[in-house]
Amino acid sequence: MKKKEVIETLEDLLWNHKSAEGDAKTEKALSEAITLLKGQKGRVEHKLKGFTKDRTIYLDGKQLNPTRSQQKYNHSPDGFNWGYEGSGPAQLALAIIIELTGQAGGYQEFKRNVIAKIPQGKDFEILFWLNNNGEIIEGEEDE
Questions:
Q1: Which of 23, 39, 56, 82 could, after both became Cys, cross-link 118 (CB 3.0–4.6 A)?
Q2: Helix%, strand%, coil% for the chain, nearest 5
Q3: What is the pLDDT of residues 31-42, one digit of tens each?
């Protein structure tokens, strides 16, 4: 098998695994294998899910709480939101960046490039990638 065929096969396996609601450890292993084969070392995939009813957010399957980010900058006492460039999306972007990198740098850019582009007022699930420096590489809606 050629490298391209191996990557396509792994991507198909990952897609089928996600569709079947497989375990996170296998998903992560498949994602890492694809990343290594594509030569994109240092690229880490993350999944973000949000629910409008109570504005709960899950980052990589773990519920995200605004408290830690509000201690750094309290943009939104009411918590998280998405789909525009206001205080709720700023709080969400800050919480994500702090959770993933331990620092606050770059969260406004992340808000503009990813969080503000999520459809407002709707539940969502997206994938995004960070490099070793905690910089956003790309984000896309997970269908």
A1: 82
A2: 45, 20, 35
A3: 666 666 665 556
